[in-house]
Design a protein that fits this description.
25 residues; mainly alpha
Length: 25
């Protein structure tokens, strides 16, 4: 259960990071 939430958070964080990088570039 906890692992699932962590994975979700990681996925969202990664997506956000990618979006930020794209925005900066």
């Amino acid at each position: 259960m906890l692992e699932s939430q962590t994975l979700w958070t990681l996925r969202i964080l990664m997506m956000n990071l990618r979006s930020c990088s794209r925005s900066v570039k």
